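#dry-run=false #mode=assembly
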Amino acid sequence: MIDPAYRSFVSYIDKSREFYGAHGYERPYQWAYHADTPPFAPLPGLLATLRLGVVTTTFPPLPSGQERPPKQAYAAPVDPPPTAMFTEDLSWDKDATHTDDPESFLPLARLGEQVAAGRLGSLSPRFYGVPTEYSQRRTLTVDAPAILDLLREDGVDVALLVPL
Amino acid sequence: MSLVARHLEANGIPTVIVGSARDIVEQAGVARFLFVDFPLGNPMGKPYEVAQQRTITAAALDLLERAWVPRTTVQADVTWGDDSWRAVYMRVDDGNRAALAAAGEARRNEQAAAKVDGRARND
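#status=ok
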């Protein structure tokens, strides 16, 4: 039930601080915070002429015996779209929903429809994955530059980023 | 993911984030954010609900094209239906406080044991 006397959307910063605090972790996670005007790149042309790349925090299904995905950025073909992705290690609401339909977080078929309709120029032949790191320094110095390199290799003009 | 978005924008690639953790993304500060007020897990639409997935995908493209200043947040015109997940997810109350403390203690013991065994992964 929404009670308009309270903020309607969930604060995950508050929830996770209290949840892990209750587990006995005394120093709360310091989430990324910027008070600046964030960098903003204008579109280089009409969307109908541009190539889009999708970036996910999920990974392709793991080989048997492997419990966790490697902490490394990757690229994988969009055709055929994956029928399943590994999401178990990520924090999401495992009681309220499931991730059996990759289109619910990795919309390759839905974007293909937009290309077919002429709304979007093209979909990059690969989608991209970024590991979820505790260390923001590692995201900034290793993973983000790796994703940029992969996007540039494929001539991607614009990016759709979908954290699970 | 917000830090990746900022890096791409700084290097000339326009981005749109579609996500359900509004506070985390907005605090990090990104160029364009489509907020989907769903439980974490399905920011591009409920599983197998193709029409809703189309609505969200189209809204993401619209935002990519139309935003003219950074920190533009748009809320997608979709609802989950049942709101009970908001209170349940990561709930802490008197009913589970002792169990959570015990779970944390057990995990720390396990990690300490793994370290001694040399099984700890450096990740």
